[in-house]
Fold this protein.
Amino acid sequence: MDWRSLTGLLVGVGAIAVGLGAEGGQLAALLQPSGLAVVLGGTLGALLLQCGPARLLQAAKLLRRSYAAPKSAQPDIRTLVRSWGATVRRSGALALDSTAARIDDPFVARGLRMLVDGVTPARIAEILDSDTEAWELERRQSIRVWEGAGGTAPTMGILGAVLGLVQVMQHLSDPSRLGPGIAVAFVATLYGVGFANLLFLPVANRLKEQLMQELRERQLFADAIVAIAAGEPGHLIEERVAAARREDHATAAR
């Protein structure tokens, strides 16, 4: 669990609770199952119409990923490249066969298998690029589901408020029921805006950030494998990876 992301969510919800309490409100007034059903049910229905069940399921699986802690135990690319290059120079590409079988990342393992099989560097680059493009397209389509939820939820909140006001209008003859009824109606709007800005859109933006990082990792691995297949000296490959890392750190610091 990435506690930074969870802390942000808790701070946002806590701020709303404190703001409500400061004005003398009660949290129980926000617990309206009917408004919640309209917002979540309406948003879900709209997403099913837009994306279909399969895409929606893929997007749901990414929710846990968006709050997962960064992988800190992943070996450094430069260390792996140095080891692979030394193995190829010492024993040939076939010696990487056992290494490819132990790699958990299917993308990297596929590149190493092509290197072992003697595929030309140009062909390796072409296949890995196509693989990355297909993977990126699928991931972006799943991220768009969360963006769509962020755009739909506030509208569903307004719809819930309108439905609540329709019920209030039926009791105009009883002034004592107008105030509580209107308050209940606008809780649906709060649900819609809250879910959109505290959950759906932050998840989409976090997934975009993770996507860019993973694309960069794939690019570095692909370039290194192609360079090894082309017979480039190991120290040049390692220097190129190190330069890319420095550039990434400089960009992140801006």
Remarks:
- Residues 36-66+74-253 form one domain.
- The mean pLDDT is 84.
- The two ends are 26 Å apart (CA to CA).
